[in-house]
Amino acid sequence: SNPRARLTGAWRLQSIAHREGAEPVPADGMIIYSASGHMSAQILSPGEQAGDEIAFHSYFGTYSIDAEASAITHHREANNDPGAPADVVRRFRLVGEDGLVIRPDGHEGVVLTFRRAGG
Q1: For the chain, where are the alpha helices, taking DSSP H only?
Q2: Which pLDDT tens digit goes with each residue over 47-68?
């Protein structure tokens, strides 16, 4: 099946695990992939411990998919962290009809779990 077609749409963040084997904690946010190749992400990422500060990540740009590697590269045009790299790789796995799991390269053990929004 075509990964771009399956990724197209809005995905609501459900949880984040901060390291391999860590219990996922509830999180919120949304990532949107358009059929035209544009993307936008807003992530509210709680810390591992209750009471930890919540980090906010927001950026937009375009994306490309390497289906062989199950990888999406976000080509960020604007970012609330101006020092961050423009291009970042996200390993992805589609789960059933409405699940998306993302593992960001460079953040060992971090796992973000999404559900299709409105689905």
Answers
A1: 3-7
A2: 777 778 888 999 999 999 999 9
CB count within 10 Å of CB 109 equals 11
Q: Give the whole-angstrom CA distance, residue 13 versus residue 16.
A: 8
**CB count in 10 Å sphere of residue 54:** 11
The span from the CA of 67 to the CA of 46, in Å, is 30
Instruction: Tell me 47's DSSP state.
Output: -
Residue 101 DSSP code: E
Q: Where are the beta strands (DSSP E) in the chain?
A: 9-17, 25-26, 28-33, 38-45, 55-66, 71-79, 87-95, 99-104, 111-116
**What contacts 16, CB < 8 A, 6 or more positions away?**
24, 25, 27, 45, 46, 110, 111, 112, 113
Q: Write out pLDDT tens, residues 5-32.
A: 999 999 999 999 998 888 899 999 999 9
CA distance 10 to 119: 9
pTM of the model: 0.92
